[in-house]
Amino acid sequence: MPQMSPLNWFMLLIYMIMIFMLFNSINYYIFQKNNTINKIKKINLNKFTWMW
């Protein structure tokens, strides 16, 4: 495994945080949109959110 500079590690960290925030925003949008479905399938969606 090649040696990585601190700048590369910093960029990698920022990239992972951005992906994580993107997934959270997508999940939030889907959950807000399917609010009535959430109330019906609350247990299934709780299992789904734990995967994230």
From TrEMBL:
Keyword set, alphabetical order: CF(0), Hydrogen ion transport, Ion transport, Membrane, Mitochondrion, Transmembrane, Transmembrane helix, Transport
Major subcellular site: mitochondrion
Any one biological process term the GO annotation gives: proton motive force-driven ATP synthesis
GO cellular component term of the entry, any: mitochondrial membrane
Topological type in the membrane: Single-pass membrane protein
InterPro entries to which the protein is assigned, alphabetical: ATP8_metazoa
Domain of life: Eukaryota
Localization per Swiss-Prot or TrEMBL: Mitochondrion membrane
Keyword Iron: no
Gene Ontology molecular functions: proton transmembrane transporter activity
Keyword Methyltransferase on entry: no
Transmembrane regions listed in the UniProt entry: 12-31
Subunit composition and interactions: F-type ATPases have 2 components, CF(1) - the catalytic core - and CF(0) - the membrane proton channel.
Recorded family membership: Belongs to the ATPase protein 8 family.
Protein name: ATP synthase complex subunit 8
Organism of this sequence: Eucinetus haemorrhoidalis
Name of the gene: atp8
